[in-house]
Amino acid sequence: MSGHSKWHNIQGRKGAQDKKRGKIFQKISRDLYQAAKAGGAEIDGNPQLRLVIDKAHAANMPKDNIQRALDKATGVGGANYEEITYEGYGPAGTAVMVSCLTDNKNRTAAAIRSAFTHHGGSLGSNGSVSYMFDRKGYIVILRDDLNVDEDDMLMDALDAGADDMKASDEKFEIFVNPSDLNAVRDELQKKYTLDTAEVTMFPQTVTEVPSDKASQYTGLIDELDENDDVQDVYEAAKLPEDAE
């Protein structure tokens, strides 16, 4: 039995690693699509796309995955992909926004609605929860091997046109007006290597999920994350510490 248990544990760890890698690839695919859609699929004329492709290579993302995301953006193969955002409520009324990229709206809508229903939530109408989030430009610079202190980074960020910055032991998080993201990104790239540069959603406040609803909530988020059409899930919720 011990041999079986060891094999089971190894398989469990591998499954968790594969799931984590899949989520990373999914996010990078989203970023590739958005960068190519906004600025074209030629790296030389699209610094944002170059940044994302560098991240894809660093994550050992297969070339086929990279090309597939670029093909979606440029319409290769005749498929017409559309970006759609769904809004809903998870268990205990937690606000959730789901950003999707799909070539079949009916399929995607049915799957998203089903996920909410299966896990004690409900899909809402447009605008039902989006007012609880702020849309911001977001830049991350990792502190690994970076010889710069917080004050200097703050000055560089503000000089580049950023609005605010938050520092931790691992990274600098820089917040930007969405319309200024490209300009701030280009300026900071002259001096630093950026880990992330994107427009994303931040909750204004968060709702704590009760302990008895935590498994329902994580089930909802996991099912959404595992859907191939889902590009991002934005949450205005906090799990209890014993569930994190």
UniProtKB/TrEMBL annotation:
Compartments, as annotated in UniProt: Cytoplasm
Stored InterPro entries: Integrase-like_N (IPR017856), TACO1_YebC-like_2nd/3rd_dom (IPR048300), TACO1_YebC_N (IPR049083), Transcrip_reg_TACO1-like (IPR002876), Transcrip_reg_TACO1-like_dom3 (IPR026564), YebC-like (IPR029072)
SUPFAM superfamilies membership: YebC-like
Q: Which GO terms describe its molecular function?
A: DNA binding
Give the UniProt keywords, A-Z: Cytoplasm, DNA-binding, Transcription, Transcription regulation
Which Pfam families does the UniProt entry name for this protein? TACO1_YebC_N, Transcrip_reg
What are the TACO1/YebC-like N-terminal domain coordinates in residue numbering? 5-75
Going by the entry's taxonomy, the superkingdom of the source organism is recorded as Bacteria
Q: Where is the TACO1/YebC-like second and third domain?
A: 81-235
Record carries keyword DNA-binding: yes
Region (Disordered) residue spans: 1-21
Indicate the family of this protein: Belongs to the TACO1 family.
Q: What is this protein called?
A: Probable transcriptional regulatory protein DY048_06440
What species was this sequence derived from?
Apilactobacillus timberlakei
